[in-house]
Amino acid sequence: MEEQLNFAPLGYLVMDQELKIIEMNRTMIEMSHLVSVPTHMHDLLTIASRVYFQTYFIPAIITHGAVSEMFLRLKGPDGPIPVLMNTRKRNELFECAFMQVPIRNEYENELLNAKREAEQISQATAEANSELQLLLDEVKYKQEELNIMNGRLREMTNTDVLTGLKNRRYLEEFLPGLIAESNLTLLIIDIDFFKRINDTFGHHAGDVVLKELAEVLTRTIGDDGFAARLGGEEFVAVLPIVELSEAQKIAEKIRFNVEMHDWPYQPITVSIGVASNSDCNSFPDLLNEADTALYNSKNAGRNRVSVSS
Amino acid sequence: MMDVAKRNNVKITGQGKTAIIFGHGFGCDQLVWNEVIDQFKIDYKVITFDYVGSGQSDKTAYSQERYSDLYGYKQDLLDVCDSLEDDSFIFVGHSVSSMIGMLASIERPELFSKLVMIGPSPHYLNEPGYQGGFDKSDIIELLDMMEVNYKEWAKYLAPVVMSNEDRPELAENFEQLLCSNDPKIARQFAEVTFTSDMRSELSKLTVPTLIMQTQFDAIAPLEVGQYVHDHIANSRLVIMKAMGHNPHISDAAETATVIKEYLAG
């Protein structure tokens, strides 16, 4: 071998197509820390490099007649020696040049590690994101649950426990709005001599009467409006109609149905006061007017309907 | 309905009646069989395919779970067989494919009349009393090397697999595909291949089997080929003149001749 090639600053090696080494230069021998020229290309390579070489070198060289920048590791006394190999097929032989790349290899390893770290981080981020998404879904679900619960709670706070009718709270919350928007008629319905029932038959009897009255009211009013319990033995009916004479007819029907009802303990009657918001526009005022009319009914002997004038 | 022909890029050629199916090994695809199958086209119905994740298979069908061991690849092979009307196959598997073919034959022995293993290894790692040829650190080094060399070998492999030198744009597209899609799949396939242990399965194989062993096979050395032969009851071991782990590429003629002689005998 020519001296210049023999001592060229790169490893040079020629092998046949069975990968048997035909010759190599001095630099290559020194690079691999060899005592003599090995017989087979495999003898130069680490186990992993051999596998890689066998898997990819032959397909590549057969197709292209050349291989460039194949990264391999040579066996060395102090551990693997990273090299880049270029190979060219010429005269049915493979001519190979080897360049040691320990520093580049370090950089490359660092890059590889950085890449892996980045992959791990992005995987961790993706996992954290999907966990966050789960939590968000959970929050959304809880929110919906809360909305349903709130709805139920509102329903409960607006309902009179004993009769199931709307309560005073409901009226105070919603009637001012209704009054401002449209005309309506309010009936106050009060049980006559209710105290006597409680005193004679006990509080349970009183409750039974209140419940039954609620049913009679609901049935009688039907689609014409709704009934509510103000408290004690006092009820109201809210009717979205303007004509006082019309409202008076319904009030009379209520009074009549109550009187005719088959009560469990003793006959019951109610006194009713009727007022409409055509002249007043606040709920307390309307309530006051209806209350005055009720007072008139009571004074006139009970079991009757009076209309606010 | 799953389209196996598309998913596994199944190709059928040949004028014969007997179906022979070729399974590629790790790191390549069905086109590595091109020279070998030319020798079978007159007498056989020749079937080649790509495992999902390799070659021109449908890579969207790849899942880390299904292909986390060789049984997922075995299912690919059975799916390919079941998608064809033939009811009996000769299977030729290179490298890890020979173990995949073995798993398929154990599960469905009636489906395979003969099995051909080229460079098989049931276990690559060294264990007490068993020389697979590799230590754990070798496998890690190999996986790193694949990663460093990735773009290079993708570039070199592309024209081989496309086999369309007159249409280089195909190769270029394929190279891009390989470079952008495959590193993770290739790495997992390598991990699955080099960490599998099929030694206990060998004795379950009943289908007549040919084991083809080359000289200087760095991946599956002679002792491993001998081990496979010793543990498969109905097997014949043929030592080839060819060198290295890829006789079907480097010595297609000898590879085809050895297979044909076995099938004729």
Automatic annotation (TrEMBL), chain A:
Protein EC: 2.7.7.65
Molecular function terms, GO-annotated: diguanylate cyclase activity
Residue span, GGDEF domain: 182-309
Taxonomic superkingdom: Bacteria
Coiled coil stretches, renumbered: 104-138
UniProt keyword list: Coiled coil, Nucleotidyltransferase, Transferase
Protein name: Diguanylate cyclase
UniProt organism field: Planomicrobium okeanokoites
From TrEMBL, chain B:
Coiled-coil residue windows: none
Claim: Hydrolase is one of the keywords in the record: yes
Keyword tags: Hydrolase
Domain of life: Bacteria
InterPro entries named among the record's database cross-references: AB_hydrolase_1 (IPR000073), AB_hydrolase_fold (IPR029058)
Chain ranges of the AB hydrolase-1 domain: 19-251
GO terms, molecular function: hydrolase activity
UniProt family annotation: Belongs to the AB hydrolase superfamily.
Record-given protein name: Alpha/beta fold hydrolase
